[in-house]
Amino acid sequence: MDRVLSFSGGAVPVSAVVWRFDPSGGPGGQHANRSNTRVEAAIDLAVAGDIAPSVRQKLIDRLGGELRVVVDDTRSQARNREIALDRLEERLRSGLVTAKSRKPTLPSPRARRRRLDEKRRRAETKRSRARIDPFSFDR
Fold it and tell me: Do 112 and 50 meet the contact criterion of CB atoms below 8 Å apart?
């Protein structure tokens, strides 16, 4: 049975994924040098799968025309393929999430009053530090 990458607004069959395999970098001796365990999976969002046109356009605007993931987490190509499919599916889902709009808040009346009272106290403190002009007194 062929796996399907499903998300709200559509689904993409695994047959639409373009695969590429390379040797994984790093330590591992002969196994790492000779095994193509690094997996690169790509989906062309413009033509792939059964996706509603509005959803497709939103995905293209947010993720670009091609969605690509690279996985070399494990020494097994099969496991890396599964991880790549999971990450593609997660990216498709996260590409459709709209950020919650920020609702601006105002300081409460009590907070405003407290701020102004503190400003007045601070101004009075600074005023009291001013030098006294000896000629300003009435004699």
Answer: no
Task: Give DSSP secondary structure letters for 58-93.
Answer: HHHHHH-SEEEEEE-SSS-HHHHHHHHHHHHHHHHH
Beta strand pairing status for 18-22 and 66-71? unpaired
Token pair belonging to 139 = 């004699």
Global pTM reads 0.69
Instruction: For residues 138 and 117, give the distance between their C-alpha atoms in angstroms, rounded to a whole number.
Output: 32
For the beta sheet containing 10-13, the strands, ordered from the edge strand earlier in sequence to the opposite edge, are: 4-7, 10-13, 50-51
pLDDT in tens, 44-62: 998 888 888 898 999 999 9
d(CA 21, CA 76): 12
Helix (H, G, I), strand (E, B) or coil at 62: helix
Cα–Cα distance measured from residue 108 to residue 23, given in angstroms and rounded to the nearest whole number: 61
Determine the Cα–Cα distance for residues 62 and 53; give it in Å rounded to an integer: 14
